[in-house]
Design a protein that fits this description.
heterodimer; A: alpha/beta; Rossmann fold; six-stranded mixed β-sheet; four-stranded antiparallel β-sheet; 11 helices; 10 strands; 38% helix; globular; disordered N terminus; B: mainly alpha; MetI-like fold; 2 domains; two-stranded antiparallel sheet
């Protein structure tokens, strides 16, 4: 992390500079410096309450919804501060999409769920939408399973399908950065594998930040890894370094299962 | 020792059950009595003809029409403002002293006696705004009286929609309004409609607010415009029960029966809507 700011802003898709976040007086993150690169998967891991979800939500300003929340520091997307007054927060959220741990299909049809985001911004022709839906659902490894029942209610899908639907819904925004908050927490191994395969394909043209649901997943799909502990960034580096040669003894303790 | 616990339990349940039955009996009696006394007057002619011979003969047609008009007028005045205020409070308003004051005011408004609304309507709509005794004045008065019910049921129905839908909408780049219009409001609609109908049903049966603002003792014709007075079922019932000597009991209870069926039909409608949508709900 000893890089000059000039180089950081040139190479990084997103950059966090001295970011702290508080819920009331309770710090959820303290003095985080981090960068997210293009075409890479960054795995953010750590025990519960370490600030992982908050970190993700800061990146597309979903933390704005927390009325008691307070942010310090700067967050940049392509070198542009995302809190600048001329940044549209709704547009930011289409560029930086998020998938939550618990899939929440909107109480609409499968088709309406996937087209929900695209239709918020502007009108689109039916052909264009159909193409977008198919592409998004193929990328999320869901198309073949549900292509014949796109008008069914989304809640009729299984848990694993719902999670991939939520991924497809985000992909339909054509985002540049994809945030995933434990996207496989409720999934069986086969669904998990499908999601992971989808993510590895997606990183060709996206930046991805994932909170994996365990250390194994982090090492399986991550390029970079960041270890959060009690609101602090303890370690950041390539997955090989973090998992095989951790610099901090707390990282070592965590990944070898001595705590957390 | 444990057998005494079961004794207490039996006594408690027995008491509660008896209380429940005690509550239902008078309700059933009221309905049964009105039906028994009024059914003899019931005929198509009773519903569709004008009162005759000092209202001692004929039907309740103008009063029924007036009540329908007033119910529609009440809906038109209270619905946009009530639902709008409910959406604002549930979806937009932050929790501060101002919105807390508004909420407190709404709760207190719901407790104001209806006769006070009547007097207020007389002062504001009939006299100050020069609407005169008219359907407009009566609808506005009933509308204001119904507002608190509609606002609070709207707010409750919206609050019952999971917060996660709002987060998902925001996360996909939706504005608060887009989320409300596309997801939250449609999900809350059955609850809102139920509340609206129950509020209107109460308004349809009210006597005091229309007494000062719209209701006519007797009119030989139907109202021609919304600035006309009209007869209305609740006031008509009051009039023929207390103000007209020699009124056949059959006509009195027949009128009560018509009013009761009108209100219960709305109630039934609300129940059906709620049941239909509850079965379709996906969360």
């Amino acid at each position: 992390m000893v890089t000059s700011k000039a180089i950081m802003s040139e190479t990084a898709k997103m950059t966090l500079e001295d970011v702290s976040f508080y819920y009331g007086d309770e710090p959820a993150l303290r003095h985080i410096d981090l960068q997210i690169l293009d075409h890479e998967i960054l795995a953010v891991f750590g025990p519960a309450m370490s600030g992982k979800s908050t970190l993700l939500r800061i990146l597309n300003r979903l933390t704005d919804l927390a009325t008691e929340g307070r942010l310090e520091g700067q967050v940049f997307l392509d070198g542009k501060n995302i809190h600048d007054p001329d940044v549209s927060v709704t547009h930011l959220r289409t560029r930086v999409g998020i998938v939550f741990a618990v899939p929440v299909p909107l109480p609409l049809s499968i088709w309406e769920n996937v087209t929900y985001g695209p239709l918020l911004g502007r009108r689109r022709g039916k052909d264009q939408l159909e193409e977008l839906v198919e592409k998004s659902m193929r990328s999320a490894a869901l198309w073949d399973e549900v292509k014949d029942r796109l008008q069914d209610p989304a809640t009729a899908l299984s848990g694993g399908q719902q999670q991939r639907l939520c991924l497809a819904r985000v992909l339909a925004l054509e985002p540049e950065v994809i945030l995933l908050d434990e996207p496989c927490s409720g999934l069986d191994p086969i669904s998990t594998m499908k999601v992971e395969t989808a993510l590895l394909a997606l990183k060709q043209d996206h930046s991805i930040v994932i909170v994996p649901h365990n250390v194994q997943q982090a090492s399986r799909i991550g390029d970079k890894a960041a270890f959060l502990l009690m609101a602090e960034l303890v370690e950041y580096g390539s997955v090989e370094d973090v998992f095989t040669r951790p610099r901090d003894s707390r990282t070592d303790d965590y990944i070898t299962g001595r705590f957390g | 020792m444990s057998s005494s616990r079961y004794t207490v339990q039996k006594v408690a349940f027995g008491t509660i059950t008896a209380a429940s039955i005690g509550v239902v009996i008078p309700l059933v009696l009221v309905i049964a009595y009105i039906v028994a006394q009024g059914i003899g007057a019931m005929s198509w002619e009773f519903i569709s003809s004008m009162p005759r011979n000092g209202m001692r003969e004929g039907g309740v047609f103008p009063a029924l029409v007036g009540t329908v008009w007033l119910t529609i007028g009440t809906a038109l005045t209270s619905l946009p403002f009530g639902v709008g205020a409910g959406v604002y409070l549930a979806e937009y308003a932050s929790d501060n002293w101002f919105t807390r004051t508004i909420r407190l005011a709404i709760i207190n408004l719901a407790g104001v006696p209806s006769v006070v609304y009547g007097l207020f309507g007389l002062g504001l709509f009939v006299i100050f705004l020069r609407f005169g005794m008219s359907i407009v004045a009566g609808s506005l008065t009933l509308g204001i009286m119904t507002l608190p019910v509609i606002i609070s049921t709207t707010e409750q129905a919206l609050n019952a929609v999971p917060q996660s839908f709002r987060v998902v909408n925001a996360s996909l780049g939706g504005t608060t309004w887009q989320g409300v219009r596309k997801v939250i409001l449609p999900q809350a609609l059955p609850g809102i409609m139920t509340g609206v109908i129950l509020g209107l049903e109460r308004a349809a049966g009210e006597t005091a607010p229309i007494l000062f603002t719209v209701a006519a003792f007797f009119l030989p014709r139907l109202p021609h415009s919304i600035f006309d007075q009209t007869m209305a079922l609740p006031y008509h019932l009051f009039v023929i029960s207390t103000q007209v000597p020699g009124m056949p009991i059959k006509i009195q209870y027949g009128t009560a029966l018509v009013l009761m069926v009108f209100v219960l039909t709305m109630n039934l409608l609300a129940t059906l809507i709620r049941r239909y949508y509850r079965r379709r709900r996906q969360w």
